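Help needed: design a sequence for this.
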């Protein structure tokens, strides 16, 4: 996902977990720092990018704060299926056959 674009909508942020929101906030702050540095050295070509990144940072802070206050719902954690190794998969049918006899 690109920071500072219309892709970072609040509806999309609703699906992010808290850790991912904090990570996106860190990336946005880092990008803003780099843009300000480029602006100070005269290397910045798109000044509108600074404004877009600032808005993304504000949007991220808003979503985080609303979740803290209970205004916005936190997404349910997605349970990951445990991956079985090939060795265990080979053993399981043998155990099941042994019990059936």
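Sure. Designed sequence:
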């Amino acid at each position: 996902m690109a920071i500072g674009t219309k892709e970072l909508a609040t509806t999309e942020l609703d699906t992010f977990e808290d850790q991912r929101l904090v990570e996106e906030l860190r990336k946005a702050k880092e990008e803003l720092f780099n843009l300000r540095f480029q602006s100070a050295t005269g290397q910045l070509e798109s000044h509108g990018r600074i404004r877009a990144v600032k808005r993304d940072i504000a949007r991220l802070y808003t979503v985080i704060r609303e979740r803290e206050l209970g205004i916005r719902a936190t997404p349910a954690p997605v349970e990951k299926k445990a991956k079985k190794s090939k060795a265990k998969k080979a053993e399981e049918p043998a155990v099941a056959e042994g019990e059936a006899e």
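The radius of gyration is 23 Å.
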